[in-house]
Automatic annotation (TrEMBL):
Pfam families: HTH_5
MF-aspect GO terms: DNA binding
Residue stretches making up the HTH arsR-type domain: 18-111
Database matches in Gene3D superfamilies: Winged helix-like DNA-binding domain superfamily/Winged helix DNA-binding domain
Keyword Transcription: yes
Originating organism: Metabacillus malikii
Name of the featured protein: DNA-binding transcriptional ArsR family regulator
Keyword Thylakoid annotated: no
Matches recorded under InterPro entries: ArsR-like_HTH (IPR011991), HTH_ArsR_DNA-bd_dom (IPR001845), Metal_resp_trans_reg (IPR051011), WH-like_DNA-bd_sf (IPR036388), WH_DNA-bd_sf (IPR036390)
Keywords of this entry: DNA-binding, Transcription, Transcription regulation
Length: 111
């Protein structure tokens, strides 16, 4: 008879066995989510893709600021892009992190 391990037990096992790479990725993910500008960008990309210009205009930010933050988020594989001519369109690349962001926003809304 095979004993099934529930999700909580799986998490507890993984959390005991955190390697350095996992620790680094988790800390970088939370670093990404600790910046208000990056949160605003990710929130905008949660539902649909946008060009750098669209993001800058929608959030009242400079293109330079948006590009810098998108580069950071792309390096963490939280966003991805596609090219259409000379325009880059960015979209979410990690539903897990987007769900984490949505939960944090919902949590904040309850206070």
């Amino acid at each position: 008879m095979t004993e099934e391990i529930n999700d909580e037990e799986k998490y507890q096992q993984r959390s005991r066995d955190l390697d350095e790479e996992t620790l680094f990725v988790v800390s970088q993910t939370f670093k990404a989510l600790s910046d208000p500008t990056r949160i605003r960008i990710l929130n905008l990309l949660c539902t649909e893709e946008h060009s750098v210009n669209d993001i800058a205009e929608s959030l009242n930010l400079s293109q330079s600021t948006v590009s810098h933050q998108l580069r950071f988020l792309k390096n963490l594989r939280l966003v991805k892009f596609r090219r259409a001519g000379t325009t880059l369109y960015y979209s979410k690349d990690d539903d897990h992190v987007m769900n984490l962001l949505k939960q944090a926003v919902e949590h904040a809304a309850h206070h």
